[in-house]
Amino acid sequence: MKKIVRSLLLVAFLGTFNACSDDEPPLPDNLAAFESTEKGFEGEETEIRIALSRAADAATAISVSLTPTQLTYGTEFTTTPAAANNTIALSVPAGQSSVSFKVAKKAGVLLDGDESIAFKIASVASPVLVGTNSGLKLSFKAIISDGTSIQLNGIAGSEAGSSAGNSVFLDLSSNVQTPVLRDSWDLGFYNGADFRVTINGTNGASALAINKTDLNAVSDKDFKADSLAVGQGAGKLALVDDAAGDITKTVIAAVSATDADNKVYILNRKGGSGAVLAATDLYKIRVLRKGAGYTLQYAKVNDTTFKTLDITKDAAYNFEFVSLEKGANVDVEPAKDRWDLKWGYSMYFTAAGPGVVLPYGFSDLVFTNSLAGVEAAEVLTTTATYDAFAETNLTGVTFSKAADAIGSKWRVTSGGTVGVKTDRYYLIKDPAGNIYKLRFISFHPSDGGERGKPKLEYKLVRKGA
Q1: How large is the greatest C-alpha to C-alpha distance in the chain, in angstroms?
Q2: Span of the secretion signal (predicted)?
């Protein structure tokens, strides 16, 4: 009998011990905060986002108060959702980690630029708490930010962070980030002096030329679908655009003024992992000049008729973007003077042996807006620490005009200590001459971050003339 009692006590003890040993530490507080504390805009509308530290377990109400300066709600500006008694009621859906609202200028209203609105997170439903960036000043003019900390919103839905669905454009001087679905476009038509067309590297696209000029004469008999495969050891760099952003090295040749010189191309609009879409989803395209713009001819590979779309150049933007699925122009990049960096997934390249370089899909790539004149330089902390770097340290710094000046060099994803490289940071010079120092804080659970939502901070080193 005593043996039975001792056994029961031992089982109970072990059960209690195991239960305790399996306990996980409680999650840190889930905090709601604005993406930055200051923001400016010059257009007709802007979006303001409130982000949570992690996805909400249930729908979470957030109340935001607003205090206008030299503005009257409903007369000079409105919000969506509408405000009541200078308060905007928002709700973060269950499973989501952010919510946003829009501020729009009223049509026909002239402002002198001194107007602003102070927003404040007044309350958040439990168990979420108000975070550090609880207030934001929105200026109705362009600002030159002194710097801020910001978390980029790369997650579009429930996808893994390593394949984040958004490309995120960031304008340092105005503290504005613009997330855009990678899958929202297929072709970008260059607005510069040259006539060039880029394919969507952020979607793993690839393309190859067919020695024909009649779109209707091309079918899947004119090529091998596998020849479009890129990534995971497949394909050649000739199937993708230049990784460093050289506009003269696009897969699609410069569009000639002589129509007969413009060949048909086969486009695999979505790839990057060594796979190719089914023939029914591949497109054949041909681009011609039309005056100062373009005419796009396009169809599914085995269609016997094609559609056309005219594209007009707009010098305010680097590219005009087109979605073949929608058959229309779509908004992707902000105006070329309103972004400095682009973060996200994209086709890039990798070494596969001595003298062998292959196209490869990378997550968490950072490109500069090189076509608009943005430049970057890498600084090692052995030269000067991030905190200590000042305007006097700029002497001797060489800036790069390559779009991949940052690229993947700022982080480690395998083969070592995964996370942000803490031995380096970057200098960004925008077209206005403003120079910022910028460092990455986290991007992966291994460095305390979240994949698909990198955190970074930047500070103004020298203001442009």
Answers
A1: 101
A2: 1-21
Indicate whether 317 and 410 sit together in one domain. Answer: no
Clarify whether residues 222 and 309 are in a common domain. Answer: yes
Question: Which residue, of 86, 119, 142, is where some domain finishes?
Answer: 142
Same domain, 404 and 433: yes
Kindly provide the residue ranges of all beta strands, DSSP E only, lying in 291-356, ordered along the sequence.
293-300, 307-311, 319-323, 328-330, 341-351
CB atoms within 10 A of CB 274: 16
Q: Which domain holds residue 245?
A: 186-331
* Residue 436: both structure tokens together: 């910022």
Q: What gap in Å lies between CA 345 and CA 13, rounded to an integer?
A: 51
Q: Which residues contact 355 (CB under 8 A, 6 or more apart)?
A: none
Q: How many domains does the chain have?
A: 3
Pick the range with the lowest mean pLDDT from 42-56, 63-77, 166-180, 419-433: 42-56
**What distance lies between CA 92 and its chain's CA centroid?**
21
Instruction: Say how many C-beta atoms besides its own lie within 10 A of residue 145's C-beta.
Output: 21
Q: Give the pTM.
A: 0.88
Query: Token digits for 111?
Result: 């402002």
Task: Indicate if 41 and 119 belong to the same structural domain.
Answer: yes
The answer on 135 and 198 residing in a single domain is: no
Per-residue pLDDT of 340-390, as tens digits, reads 999 999 999 998 888 889 999 999 999 999 999 999 999 999 999 999 999
Extract the tokens encoding 92. 């973060």
**Cα dist from 219 to 22, 87, 300, 325, 355, whole Å:** 60, 58, 9, 19, 35
